[in-house]
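Order emerges. One example.
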Amino acid sequence: MPLNLLAPILIGILIWLFLLTIVFWRIYLHYNKLTEGTTNTGLKPLLEELISQNREYKKDIEKLGAWCDRIEKEGSFHIQRVGLLRFNPFKDTGGDQSFILSLVDKNDTGVIISGLYSRSGLRWYAKKIKNGKGEEHELSDEEKKALRVAGEIKN
């Protein structure tokens, strides 16, 4: 073998050895990081432990997902939108001292509380709401407006 070819071959082999050393060192560091803090010796028990932990984590995640779904389903029945409207029921006297408060859930089901102020006192009324309509009594224009105000605040 001629000497002029020997130098490039040796340089190539040295570069190859350097690259293999880097790859080996990275694998060694990765293995040490993987086995850090474990009492098991060897890769097989470590991998079995990791697989076991992974199965437990998957079960926990499934439980959390079911729990979140249940909370989301139950949450749709809680009060989510509130509408408040002040108005004057008597056009010729007084100010906007009467009010309507609508408390509804995601499906516009809930209650409307009306407070009508007059000179003789304050009168309170409550109506059940189901799907945006009065269940037992017809809604007044002001009550419908209070429902619209509550609907503008959708989440």
The first strand starts at residue 81 and ends at 87. The chain has a mean pLDDT of 86. The helical segments are 3-35, 43-75, 141-151. Residues 81 and 153 are 6 Å apart (CA to CA).
